């Protein structure tokens, strides 16, 4: 497995990580046994980075990962790098209702995370979003307290802009910023990626397949009402048809190289820099195997030109989140 360091100060990680959110109901029902088998298969293949959030399934995801780690061979379990997001507040119906980045909340969230995962420390701990009511310096300072106490190894950030990144890095070294990055979500290239590279901060890229939209597998007729994507602008009528047309254009390039659309999309992100680690949201072993096949895809300059022509920057129809969420994303602010 190819290795990439997460920033100047972060851990050495597999070049692809496994995002586990989809195993806890965000994209409709998932199979618990298959989810655990997928985590085991990822570890066996050399994938070390496991990404989760304490609000995924209201704790379900952390319990699931904890169960998978407990039943994995000790050598594989010990190799796992746990990346955890915190701060998302949800009601009993599952609605997101607030974000809490207060220092006292940070320490409380961490206590429950350690218990659910069944571990003594978290490798990378990060606020899932910027709390507009709490200075990022205070939130990061609380994580530093937990580093000093031995409960956390590294500070991470998620979906924040360049100014916030600089403020956080002035408090303590940041190993990586987790942010959406794909062929149809390239906003970080303007200011966030240059700031991270200036400061020696890595990128863990989620949404590499745009929640399945550019995987080559998603179909409109298979959409489920309990799937989070039902409310996503890019999956809405009028937008989704235009976005799937981009996928069709990408499929021609994939077919010519005898690889899948997903593999082309992942390979493109992998090729954007050794400081970028794609986090793949595979829920099944076959999808994991397909994703790891991206390592075998060698893109030429002609391929890059063809991909750019097929999916130009800014070509996607619709925002990546609903308007209310977009308004709260620090990463989307000028």
UniProtKB/TrEMBL annotation:
A cellular component term, taken from the record's GO annotations: cytoplasm
Tell me which UniProt keywords the record has, alphabetically: Oxidoreductase
Domain of life, per UniProt, equals Bacteria
Q: Where is the NADP-dependent oxidoreductase domain?
A: 15-310
Q: Show the InterPro entries listed in the entry.
A: Aldo-Keto_reductase, NAD(P)_OxRdtase_dom_sf, NADP_OxRdtase_dom
Q: Which SUPFAM superfamilies match?
A: NAD(P)-linked oxidoreductase
Please give one Gene Ontology molecular function term for this protein.
oxidoreductase activity
Against PANTHER family, the record matches this protein to: AFLATOXIN B1 ALDEHYDE REDUCTASE, ALDO-KETO REDUCTASE YAKC [NADP(+)]
> Can you say what this protein is called?
Aldo/keto reductase
- Top-down, what is the taxonomic lineage of the species of origin? Bacteria, Pseudomonadati, Pseudomonadota, Betaproteobacteria, Burkholderiales
């Amino acid at each position: 497995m190819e290795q990439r360091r997460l920033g100047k100060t972060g851990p050495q990680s597999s070049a692809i990580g496994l995002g586990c959110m989809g195993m806890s109901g965000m994209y409709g029902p998932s199979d618990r046994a298959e989810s655990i088998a997928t985590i085991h298969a990822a570890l066996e293949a050399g994938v070390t980075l496991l990404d989760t959030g304490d609000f995924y399934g209201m704790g379900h995801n952390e319990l699931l990962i904890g169960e998978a780690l407990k039943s994995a061979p000790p050598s594989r379990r010990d190799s796992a790098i746990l990346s955890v997001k915190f701060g998302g507040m949800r009601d009993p119906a599952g609605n997101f209702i607030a974000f809490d980045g207060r220092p006292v909340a940070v320490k409380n969230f961490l206590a429950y995370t350690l218990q659910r995962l069944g571990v003594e420390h978290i490798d990378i701990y990060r606020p899932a979003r910027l709390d507009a009511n709490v200075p990022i310096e205070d939130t990061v300072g609380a994580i530093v307290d937990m580093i000093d106490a031995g409960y956390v190894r590294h500070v991470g950030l998620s979906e924040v802009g360049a100014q916030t990144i600089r403020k956080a890095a002035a408090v303590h070294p940041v190993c990586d910023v987790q942010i959406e990055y794909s062929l149809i979500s390239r906003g970080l290239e303007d200011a966030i990626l240059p700031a991270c590279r200036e400061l020696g901060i890595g990128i863990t890229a989620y949404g590499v397949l745009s929640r399945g939209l550019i995987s080559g597998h998603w179909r409109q007729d298979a959409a489920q009402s309990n799937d989070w994507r039902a409310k996503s602008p890019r999956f809405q009528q009028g937008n989704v048809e235009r976005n799937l047309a981009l996928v069709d254009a990408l499929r021609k390039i994939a077919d010519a190289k005898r690889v899948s659309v997903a593999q082309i999309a992942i390979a493109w992100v992998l090729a954007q820099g050794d400081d970028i680690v794609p986090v793949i949201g595979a829920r099944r072993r076959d999808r994991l195997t397909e994703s790891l096949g991206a390592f075998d895809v060698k893109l030429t300059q002609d391929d890059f030109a063809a991909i750019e022509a097929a999916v130009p920057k800014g070509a996607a129809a619709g925002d990546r989140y609903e308007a209310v969420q977009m308004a709260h994303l620090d990463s989307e602010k000028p």
